[in-house]
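user: can you give me the structure for this one chain? tokens are fine.
assistant: on it. calling the predictor now.
[tool input]
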Amino acid sequence: MSATDRFRPSVTVAAVIANAGRYLLVEEDTPEGVMLNNPAGHLEQGESPLDAVVREALEETARHFVPEHFLGVYLARFVRPARLEDVTYVRLAFSGAVGEAIAGRALDTGIRRTLWMTEAELAACPERHRSPLVLQCVQDHAAGRRLPLETVFAHASLQAPQRKG
């Protein structure tokens, strides 16, 4: 396999936010229609996973997210025949808390609204999930999975890349 053919998964982060038995989700426009997702998005170059999940949660929910725990690393593969896309996602999921929505702050493009759902309500509509990881992350949180945030290490070279050679 050549370097250009090398497998390159898409790295994403997700915020799993619970309050009084309900989980904060986003309803978003996708090529497959309107879907439910945890507040989530792509890790950007130069960004730590913690910084990324805080940014994504703010952009998609208009709420400040405070990560408290690492839930885990999740992988899933998704095929979009119409676009000839075959993507494997590596999701780093964090749980934590949010404050109230920031008045006047718009939600990210493509996000229709936020909503709170119980695990059972979410489990009852799998056809509306952006990926199978949406429910899996909620189930793991509900089951009590909590890892230290220090489980995910981000080297300072993310901000100032080291030169080799």
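assistant: here you go. DSSP finds three helices and seven strands in the chain. The chain has one domain: 7-99+108-150.
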